Task: structure prediction
Amino acid sequence: MPNPSCPPTILLIGASRGLGLAMAHEFLQRGWHVVATVRGTARTPLHDLAAAHPDAVGIETLDICDPEQLAALHQRLAGRKFEMLFVNAGTTNPDPTQTIGEVSTRDFVDLMVTNALSPMRVVEQLADHVTPSGLIGIMSSGQGSIAHNERGMRELYRGSKAALNMFMRSYAARRAGSAHPMVLMAPGWVRTELGGPEAPLGIEDSVPGVVDVLLSRIGQPGLRYLDYQGRTVPW
Ligand SMILES: NC(=O)c1ccc[n+]([C@@H]2O[C@H](COP(=O)([O-])OP(=O)(O)OC[C@H]3O[C@@H](n4cnc5c(N)ncnc54)[C@H](OP(=O)(O)O)[C@@H]3O)[C@@H](O)[C@H]2O)c1
Result:
């Protein structure tokens, strides 16, 4: 666990705001160093965190949907190893109330690319920057559970996270026997821009649990689909 003379470091993808930003704060509080990404050049609250902790927080740039930016980040990180890689970045479609028959092809493609394809590309490309027993995690959602889908709603979003889960299972299956703990995380329904104001949980209710659960998986190889309280989510 965190050794003050050589703190472990997380590479956190998508930390400009919301859950990702709060995860950066939380890992810092737990004694970790953080290298976190934003899109574009605009100043974000993550920059304030980095300014307050210049020795412990670094900022990189990545739009996960841009393969050239991903390749460039891979290059910039040459020679660096991280104890954890976590892909938080994700979004939803413009009108999440639409049924799958109502969504446009454009919205379908955009969301599948952002939520399912791109996080896996990040994992595939950046995994060689993870230590041999380092944790590889992705922010999924309880809405990605096929077994728990009794009500429909948010159909495209659900489908994108279910696809993400399936791709991560394939990734893990190809690495059976590797020492990497792997986690698909369901953070609960949380009040963020994505979660909306009616969500029952605040960020402070979710993120400490998310971090507890990730840290609890260190040293335990294999893929788990877990919520922020450590409960297994049925596929
Ligand atoms: N809130 C919830 O209730 C809830 C529940 C289950 C799962 N989740 C998942 O948790 C993750 C974070 O959600 P949130 O609630 O914190 O949402 P949020 O406040 O809307 O934040 C989304 C984050 O993802 C980043 N992002 C989006 N598209 C990106 C891209 N193409 N490249 C790089 N970064 C990108 C955003 O960066 P910009 O600032 O540049 O846009 C932002 O940092 C998502 O994967 C989401 O699906 C959320």
